[in-house]
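This section describes the prediction task in plain terms. A model, or a person checking by hand, is given the sequence of a single protein chain and must write out its three-dimensional structure as a string of tokens. No templates, partner chains or ligands are provided. The sample shown here is typical of the held-out split.
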Amino acid sequence: MDFDEFIKSQQQSKEETASPEKAKEQVQFFNDRLKDLYKVVTNALKLYINDGSVKISEHTQELKEDELFGCKEYRYNAQETIIQIGKSAVNLTPIGINIIGAGGRVDMDGPRGKATILLARPGGPQIHTAIYSEGQTPLEPPAPTPKEELVWQFMVRLPRLHYIEVNEETFKDTLMQVING
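The expected answer:
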């Protein structure tokens, strides 16, 4: 086999492993979970939205994954939510699906702070690593968390890294933090 044949064979194997259907399915799952997150936000702020002191708007943004199920530079749309409270604006910006140990990420940016929201198994992302010497038999990796069990969680870095499930109360607490510092 010469180098030209080698390059062609590598391109063919890459194309055979690409699955646009699975990528589209994963994007749909992510967008459905975004809707769930935004329902929590709307419910937490419902009273203030109704009296006009809080305004919520949504904008479609295009995201790009370097690779999603073998599809290179996969582009898709997701909703960004903007919360306006007086002069302060807080953006809930989807970052993407390909997040190590998680099924998605949303950044919550306010005038005086930022919070990271991950779609992960309860208790936070699970990452399995192992190092083997030559001749050792690899252990079976843990079973992946089923999609249905993934929940939105705030990633809290201090005093130690931990995760707090997103609900109406934790959302309101975090909203105050990213606005007031």
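For orientation: The mean pLDDT is 89.
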